[in-house]
Amino acid sequence: MSGLSHQEMLDASVHFGHLRKKWNPKMLPYIFMERKGIHIIDLNKTNEGLERAASAMKKLARAGKKILFVATKKQAKDMVAKAAEEIGMPYVTERWLGGMLTNFSTIRKSIKKKQSIKKLLEEKSTALTKKERLMLSREYDKLDRILGGVEDMSRAPSALFIVDISHEHIALAEAKRLGIITFAMVDTNSDPTQVDFAIPANDDASKSVGLITGYLVNSIKEGLAERQKEKTDDYDTHEQQGEGDSGSAEKGNRRDAARNRNLQKRRRNRTSSSSEGGEE
Question: Is 279's pLDDT higher than 50?
Fold first, then answer.
């Protein structure tokens, strides 16, 4: 992949930062100019950060690693959830529970509780009153809303992709504490040095979030496709080796059979010669 065009990013408002008074000085290398009190992000820097992040995500996907998508802002959560589901990655788009990463065993217990409630509600033979069923349904809906995106995550992820690190500061802090790789869209009011792969971009506009996320998702798809191809190639190689081994064994059996026939023939000839010598 070769990055996004400037026109694509301009159309999605990727270049718009925050008011100058809200800026983080560490974003200076990524700011192109100031216009009417608003910082304008350098789109060349955006593409550089995007390509670097996309390449790293592709490698993670190819290696079978999980990337947790985090975006609880209203204008971002639906599209990020859809994007993560599209590639089979976990996501958090409602409330980030404290300890989601640092106390993952407790989160797993909550997920198991959710699964137990679902099973209970699906069993029509269960003697639940109407009130009990209603209460359980409400509890299930709450757990599903918060934990539904990480239900299949059996262990902490290898990386996080975050939309707005200022808003998702708890998630970022937990990831850093555990040494988990972090990717993020970083606006002019945030500190890009807090993440491993910073993508300078407008993290408030839904079009901007959608464009950047979509590009990264396509890179992950490429990594997943390469992983699948490697698996298929390995399977075909093993199959061919198996056929080769079978063919070699068959040839060996034929050689052994021919050797035995020749040996038996020589024995018969020797026996015949001995008999003729005795008659003389």
Answer: no
The answer to whether residue 241 is domain-embedded is no
Q: Which of 104, 59, 80, 88 is nearest to 184 (CA)?
A: 80
CA separation, residue 160 to residues 22, 175, 199, 220, 272 (Å): 25, 7, 13, 13, 86
Parent domain of 175: 6-224
Residue at 67: amino acid letter: I
User: What contacts 4, CB < 8 A, 6 or more positions away?
Assistant: 14, 46, 47, 50, 211, 215
Structural tokens at position 244: 């080769």
Grouping H, G, I as helix, E, B as strand and the rest as coil, residue 163 is: strand
Whole-Å CA distances, 133 to 119, 128, 146, 195, 237: 12, 6, 20, 44, 54
Residue 47 has pLDDT above 90, yes or no: yes
Does residue 194 lie within any of the structural domains? yes
**For position 18, which CATH number holds?**
3.40.50.10490
Asked if residue 263 is part of any domain, the answer here is: no
Cα separation, 116 vs 254, whole angstroms: 61
Q: Is residue 130 part of a domain?
A: yes
pLDDT number for residue 280:
38
